[in-house]
Design goal:
The chain is mostly beta strands. It has one domain. It is 12% helix and 58% strand. It has two helices and nine strands; from the N terminus they run αββββαβββββ. Strands 1-2-3-4-5-7-8-9 form an eight-stranded antiparallel barrel. The longest helix is centred in the N-terminal third of the chain and has 15 residues.
Length: 180
Amino acid sequence: MIKKFFSLLFFIGYCQFSFGQNLQDIHSLKLQFFSLGYNYEKVLGNQFTLNSELKINCLYGQRGNFFTDEKQEYWLISPSIGVEPRYYYNFDKRENKGKNILHNAANYLSLSTTYYTGISLGKNAEAIANLEVIPMWGLRRNLGKRFFMECAIGVGAYTVNGKEWESTLGLDLGISYSLF
Protein backbone atom coordinates (compact mmCIF):
# COMPACT_ATOMS: atom_id res chain seq x y z
CA MET A 1 0.00 0.00 0.00
CA ILE A 2 2.81 2.42 0.86
CA LYS A 3 4.59 1.71 -2.44
CA LYS A 4 1.38 2.40 -4.37
CA PHE A 5 0.84 5.67 -2.51
CA PHE A 6 4.37 6.98 -3.15
CA SER A 7 4.21 5.84 -6.79
CA LEU A 8 0.98 7.81 -7.22
CA LEU A 9 2.58 10.94 -5.71
CA PHE A 10 5.53 10.81 -8.10
CA PHE A 11 3.31 10.02 -11.10
CA ILE A 12 1.09 13.03 -10.39
CA GLY A 13 4.06 15.29 -9.75
CA TYR A 14 6.16 14.49 -12.78
CA CYS A 15 3.63 13.53 -15.44
CA GLN A 16 0.61 15.76 -14.98
CA PHE A 17 1.96 19.19 -14.02
CA SER A 18 4.23 21.46 -16.01
CA PHE A 19 7.20 22.92 -14.17
CA GLY A 20 6.40 26.16 -12.35
CA GLN A 21 8.28 29.39 -12.74
CA ASN A 22 7.34 31.25 -9.56
CA LEU A 23 7.80 28.71 -6.80
CA GLN A 24 11.34 27.80 -5.83
CA ASP A 25 13.19 24.71 -4.62
CA ILE A 26 14.11 25.09 -0.95
CA HIS A 27 16.63 23.32 1.29
CA SER A 28 16.01 24.16 4.94
CA LEU A 29 16.50 23.19 8.57
CA LYS A 30 13.26 23.19 10.56
CA LEU A 31 12.90 23.53 14.32
CA GLN A 32 9.60 22.47 15.86
CA PHE A 33 8.55 22.06 19.50
CA PHE A 34 9.77 18.47 19.76
CA SER A 35 11.80 17.90 16.60
CA LEU A 36 14.61 19.08 14.38
CA GLY A 37 14.67 18.22 10.70
CA TYR A 38 16.02 18.76 7.21
CA ASN A 39 13.46 19.66 4.51
CA TYR A 40 13.76 19.74 0.75
CA GLU A 41 10.85 21.24 -1.16
CA LYS A 42 10.95 20.50 -4.90
CA VAL A 43 8.81 22.42 -7.38
CA LEU A 44 6.64 20.03 -9.40
CA GLY A 45 4.24 22.35 -11.19
CA ASN A 46 2.88 25.84 -11.46
CA GLN A 47 1.47 25.78 -7.91
CA PHE A 48 2.62 22.33 -6.77
CA THR A 49 5.62 21.19 -4.73
CA LEU A 50 6.77 18.02 -3.01
CA ASN A 51 8.13 18.61 0.48
CA SER A 52 10.43 15.82 1.76
CA GLU A 53 11.53 15.73 5.37
CA LEU A 54 13.96 13.82 7.61
CA LYS A 55 13.36 14.52 11.31
CA ILE A 56 14.70 13.63 14.72
CA ASN A 57 11.79 13.64 17.19
CA CYS A 58 12.34 14.11 20.92
CA LEU A 59 10.06 13.38 23.84
CA TYR A 60 10.48 13.88 27.59
CA GLY A 61 8.05 13.40 30.44
CA GLN A 62 7.04 11.71 33.66
CA ARG A 63 4.52 9.03 34.31
CA GLY A 64 3.23 7.66 37.54
CA ASN A 65 0.40 7.51 39.97
CA PHE A 66 -1.30 10.81 40.76
CA PHE A 67 -2.16 9.70 44.32
CA THR A 68 1.35 8.54 45.27
CA ASP A 69 4.79 9.97 44.75
CA GLU A 70 5.81 7.13 42.45
CA LYS A 71 7.01 8.86 39.31
CA GLN A 72 9.19 7.65 36.50
CA GLU A 73 10.96 9.99 34.09
CA TYR A 74 11.29 8.99 30.46
CA TRP A 75 12.89 10.39 27.33
CA LEU A 76 13.01 9.28 23.73
CA ILE A 77 14.77 10.26 20.50
CA SER A 78 13.45 8.73 17.26
CA PRO A 79 13.78 9.49 13.50
CA SER A 80 10.95 9.91 11.01
CA ILE A 81 10.62 10.36 7.24
CA GLY A 82 7.93 12.47 5.60
CA VAL A 83 6.62 13.26 2.12
CA GLU A 84 4.06 15.99 1.57
CA PRO A 85 2.67 17.10 -1.81
CA ARG A 86 1.52 20.72 -1.57
CA TYR A 87 -0.80 22.92 -3.60
CA TYR A 88 -0.13 26.65 -3.04
CA TYR A 89 -3.57 28.02 -3.84
CA ASN A 90 -2.93 31.75 -3.29
CA PHE A 91 0.68 32.10 -4.46
CA ASP A 92 -0.20 34.00 -7.65
CA LYS A 93 -2.61 36.27 -5.77
CA ARG A 94 0.11 37.18 -3.23
CA GLU A 95 2.60 37.81 -6.03
CA ASN A 96 0.16 40.05 -7.95
CA LYS A 97 -0.48 42.11 -4.80
CA GLY A 98 3.27 42.65 -4.38
CA LYS A 99 3.51 40.61 -1.16
CA ASN A 100 6.67 38.81 -0.14
CA ILE A 101 6.69 35.37 -1.78
CA LEU A 102 10.31 34.44 -0.98
CA HIS A 103 10.60 30.80 0.22
CA ASN A 104 7.15 30.03 -1.25
CA ALA A 105 5.39 32.25 1.31
CA ALA A 106 1.71 31.48 0.69
CA ASN A 107 -1.21 29.38 1.93
CA TYR A 108 -1.37 25.73 0.91
CA LEU A 109 -3.31 22.47 1.01
CA SER A 110 -1.28 19.29 1.44
CA LEU A 111 -1.33 15.60 2.18
CA SER A 112 1.22 15.04 4.94
CA THR A 113 2.49 11.45 5.01
CA THR A 114 4.96 10.56 7.77
CA TYR A 115 6.56 7.24 8.65
CA TYR A 116 7.90 6.94 12.20
CA THR A 117 10.62 4.29 12.04
CA GLY A 118 10.29 2.71 15.47
CA ILE A 119 14.06 3.04 15.93
CA SER A 120 14.84 4.90 19.15
CA LEU A 121 17.25 5.85 21.86
CA GLY A 122 15.73 6.44 25.24
CA LYS A 123 15.16 5.69 28.88
CA ASN A 124 11.98 3.96 30.08
CA ALA A 125 10.29 4.36 26.67
CA GLU A 126 10.46 2.95 23.16
CA ALA A 127 9.17 4.15 19.80
CA ILE A 128 6.56 2.24 17.84
CA ALA A 129 6.74 2.20 14.04
CA ASN A 130 3.67 3.80 12.48
CA LEU A 131 2.41 5.63 9.42
CA GLU A 132 0.24 8.75 9.52
CA VAL A 133 -1.59 10.38 6.61
CA ILE A 134 -3.13 13.80 7.27
CA PRO A 135 -4.71 16.30 4.83
CA MET A 136 -3.48 19.71 6.02
CA TRP A 137 -4.24 23.39 5.54
CA GLY A 138 -1.23 25.59 6.19
CA LEU A 139 0.55 28.84 5.63
CA ARG A 140 4.14 29.93 5.33
CA ARG A 141 5.42 33.43 6.01
CA ASN A 142 8.89 34.98 5.97
CA LEU A 143 10.77 36.24 8.99
CA GLY A 144 13.57 38.07 7.21
CA LYS A 145 15.70 36.85 4.30
CA ARG A 146 16.72 33.41 5.60
CA PHE A 147 14.07 32.51 8.19
CA PHE A 148 10.43 31.58 7.66
CA MET A 149 7.65 30.10 9.76
CA GLU A 150 5.04 27.50 8.98
CA CYS A 151 1.75 26.71 10.64
CA ALA A 152 -0.51 23.87 9.48
CA ILE A 153 -3.42 21.91 10.90
CA GLY A 154 -5.45 18.92 9.77
CA VAL A 155 -7.32 15.76 10.73
CA GLY A 156 -6.25 12.40 9.35
CA ALA A 157 -5.44 8.84 10.32
CA TYR A 158 -2.56 6.68 11.48
CA THR A 159 -1.86 2.97 11.59
CA VAL A 160 0.55 0.88 13.62
CA ASN A 161 0.00 -2.53 12.06
CA GLY A 162 -1.17 -1.52 8.58
CA LYS A 163 -4.64 -2.99 9.13
CA GLU A 164 -6.49 -0.75 11.58
CA TRP A 165 -6.55 3.02 11.16
CA GLU A 166 -7.26 5.48 13.97
CA SER A 167 -8.05 9.19 13.66
CA THR A 168 -5.45 11.76 14.64
CA LEU A 169 -4.99 15.53 14.73
CA GLY A 170 -2.05 17.00 12.85
CA LEU A 171 -0.42 20.23 14.00
CA ASP A 172 2.73 21.64 12.43
CA LEU A 173 4.31 24.74 13.98
CA GLY A 174 7.89 25.50 13.13
CA ILE A 175 10.59 27.98 12.24
CA SER A 176 12.89 27.16 9.33
CA TYR A 177 16.25 28.43 8.14
CA SER A 178 16.83 28.41 4.37
CA LEU A 179 20.21 26.85 3.58
CA PHE A 180 20.59 28.24 0.04
